[in-house]
Design brief:
This protein is of the alpha/beta class and 726 residues long. Helix content is 39%, strand content 21%.
């Protein structure tokens, strides 16, 4: 036998990666790991990657043997966890098994055999549903398996023997390690985060492999079988709608990245051939005396198709900023990755986010020690990995005194027609480590189609409530939430912000000091991929640095900017207040803010009132949150203009009520204009092809000039003159 023949028959070494995010799946996690360990050939290693859940990681390390337990050192979510597993694996093949799946005997052998062909880059297996104890296939789910993808299993239309496919299925798949090293890992722009039923990260990776490697073969091996645990919450019509909608959202994201031609080829065949055949089969069932079962099947198929189409169209419209190209062009300018490094369990390798459209030059790294922020640094990126070898930290910011005080906290989240965005915000709030929490989701457009999605979002957790405020304006929405809040402390969070798990606990620690009325957060960008995002961060970034700051009349002394530079106090869209303080101030001014002609300024105006009344504000860099900056130049220009309108409207509003402050306001407004005039339009070396300094400057100056008439229109619309809200 030749050496080449021997190499082709040699079974490659394999690392099996299982990703987990919740202890609620502890029994299925152990079953998945045990099934992997019992495979023949024996895996080189089994890696359990825990997605930002220290308690689960500790339990796994102290309970499991023969398993390597890793903390996800990338962004929260399945893609980040899988990339962590890839970075720490040693096998020639990396296989992935879901934490709620059990591999049958022969699973691994069938996955590995096709790798004898050097052109094979990925092999996926089949998944069969394992229904909850005491229940079987739900009556609405067609018996033929045509919709089994809804519950994460193999569905009608996939090959019945070893064959090439567009992509593998996430719960049972494998990739050649050298291919992952060459093209990168899973994109964090798509994929599941916790229990949110998004996906398609494996689809994007397979499409990327085919683009980069023309000879690449991706195979489906139906004999490599896992049983996939179907939880009870997936047996309802509401889950069918949510899962289908999320599938459409995910497909739109992948289409945006890869082009609709390749990204949707499989779906077109499925809709054109498989679904009509399934409907025909249901009609045959009806003719054989089972009309009820047939009717449910047809309704389920129609529901899945319409919801998926709706999610796809909604996400496509949201992302579109003009005629959509066949494929999104790559962002070729060197970008800045955004990631975190926890020194309490730091890894030797820190991967940059996987994004095939972006070349990362460096990374903005939030360095922390568990719940505490240490530093915010820029580090070089080489080969998709962040160089942490030369990490040097400054002195860490001061920390508040630890306290056992855990009062009730109500978090008010106003939103308007942004169900997908606010879903991520609410999910992050519910994931915080705080024992006494309620989240009040205030719908400022309750008569639109999005209201149903918001109501459904709040129905899934007893800590959430849906409130409707039909009068437009974020100030009115916040005041409605404040009136319904039950907590001693009340936080306000914008719907395009996601908070860190320790965010609330660290804010509460600041208000344990009875002298503090409000605490604000370190809000960082969730992405700096595009020139528009980097420009926004430079001009309007919400972070106020790494120094903990206390603002009060006693500490201000003779500072001429105090209190008429409220932007220094931190972001009002991510702040925690003492309820009694808000009651004394009268809440937010309904003439200001998004949803009104003034478009912004409501949070700064409330800060101004608090400071003028002698209140105290603490800005803490230990309360971390992430803001989704606008990706497009048109959105950036609109945002800068709106902020400037709100700023000047806020000052005019205050001047009308407090004419004695005219001198200080007259000094503050020119200072703001000077800041606008001196600001750059884009970061150095951004490769920007945007509107340039002159256009952005004009947008902001016209905004400042538009503030007074905007305030007048807002007052006229409110039919309340210049009255203060109470």
């Amino acid at each position: 036998m030749t050496a080449a023949g021997t190499d082709r028959e040699r079974v490659p070494t394999v690392s099996v990666v299982v990703c987990a995010f919740t202890a609620a799946r502890w029994h299925t996690i152990r079953a998945a790991l045990a099934s992997a360990a019992e495979q023949a050939p024996t895996p080189l290693e089994i890696l359990l990657v825990v997605d930002h859940n220290p308690d689960l990681a500790h339990r796994a390390r102290t309970t499991l043997s023969g398993i390597t337990v890793l903390d996800n050192d990338g962004p929260r979510g399945l893609s980040g966890a899988r990339n962590t597993g890839i970075a720490h694996s040693a096998g020639a093949v990396v296989a992935f098994l879901d934490d709620d799946a059990v591999a049958r005997p022969g699973w691994l052998a069938h996955l590995l055999a096709p790798y004898a062909d050097p052109d094979v880059v990925a092999v996926g297996g089949a998944a069969e549903p394992h229904w909850p104890p005491g229940s079987g296939r739900p009556g609405w789910l067609p018996s033929g398996g045509v919709l089994d993808w809804v519950v994460g299993c193999t569905y009608t239309g996939l090959p019945t023997a070893l064959a090439e496919v567009r992509n593998v299925m996430g719960c049972t798949m494998s990739f050649r390690r050298t291919v992952l090293d060459e093209i990168g890992g899973f994109s964090t722009r798509v994929g599941r985060v916790g229990a949110l039923p998004l996906g398609c990260e494996e689809t994007e990776l397979c499409l990327r492999a085919r683009r980069r490697l023309p000879r690449a073969r991706i195979l489906f091996e139906p004999r490599a079988v896992v049983t996939h645990q179907v939880s009870a919450d997936r047996l309802s019509w509401s889950y069918l709608r949510r899962r289908s909608w999320s599938e459409g959202v995910s497909k739109a994201a992948v289409s945006r990245m890869a082009g609709t031609g390749h990204a949707l080829a499989t779906e077109r065949r499925y809709v054109a051939r498989v679904l009509p055949a399934a409907v025909g089969g249901a009609l045959v069932q009806a003719g054989r005396g089972r009309p009820a079962e047939a009717g449910k099947a047809i309704i389920a198929i129609a529901t899945a198709l319409l919801a998926t189409t709706g999610g796809y169209l909604r996400e496509s419209a949201r992302r579109r900023s003009g005629p959509e190209p066949a494929a999104e062009p790559a962002v070729t300018a060197p970008a800045t990755a955004v990631t975190e490094l926890d020194v309490s369990h730091a890894a030797a390798v820190l991967s940059a986010p996987a994004n095939p459209e972006v070349v990362y030059r460096d990374a903005q790294v939030l360095v922390r020690d568990g719940r505490w922020t240490l530093d915010l640094v820029r580090l070089p990126v080489t080969g998709g990995r962040v160089d942490v070898a030369g990490l040097r930290l400054n002195a860490p910011p001061a920390r508040p005194e630890t306290t056992a005080w855990t009062p009730g906290v109500s978090v008010v989240v106003p939103t308007a027609d942004r169900a997908d965005t606010v879903r991520r915000c609410v999910k992050s709030l519910l994931a915080t480590d705080y024992p006494d929490l309620e989240v009040l989701l205030v719908d400022n457009r309750p008569h639109t189609a999005e209201a149903a999605a918001l109501i459904e979002l709040t129905a899934g957790d007893p800590r959430t409530r849906y409130l409707a405020e039909a009068e437009p304006g974020v100030s009115r929405a916040r005041n409605t939430g404040l009136a319904e809040a039950s907590g001693t402390l009340v936080a306000f969070v914008d719907d395009d912000i996601e908070v860190d798990r320790w965010w609330l606990a660290n804010l509460v620690a600041e208000l344990a000091d009875e002298r503090v009325d409000c605490a604000t957060s370190l809000v960082l960008p969730s992405s700096l991929d595009t020139p528009a995002q980097r420009t926004f961060e430079m001009l309007k970034g919400f972070g106020q640095g790494l120094r903990r700051q206390v603002f009060s009349p006693e500490l201000a002394g003779d500072d001429p900017r105090y209190p008429f530079a409220p932007g220094r106090f931190g972001p009002g869209g991510c702040a925690l207040w003492r309820r009694s303080t808000l009651a004394g101030l009268g809440g937010f001014d309904p003439l200001l803010g998004p949803g009104t002609p003034t478009r912004a300024g409501e949070d700064l105006e409330l800060f101004l009132r608090l400071a003028r009344a002698g209140g105290s504000i603490v800005y803490t860099p230990h309360a971390v949150a992430w803001h989704e900056h606008s990706t497009e130049w048109t959105q950036l220009r609109e945002q800068l203009h709106a902020y400037s309108v709100g700023l000047s409207a806020m000052f005019v509003r205050h001047l009308v009520q407090h004419p004695g402050d005219a001198g200080m306001i007259a000094a503050a407004v020119p200072n703001r204009v000077r800041r606008v005039l001196s600001a750059r339009s884009s970061p150095p070396d951004s490769g920007s092809t945007g509107p340039g300094a002159r256009r952005l400057l004009l947008d902001q100056l016209t905004g400042l000039a538009s503030g007074p008439p905007a305030l007048a229109r807002s007052a006229w619309k409110a039919r309340s003159g210049w009255s203060r809200c109470t």
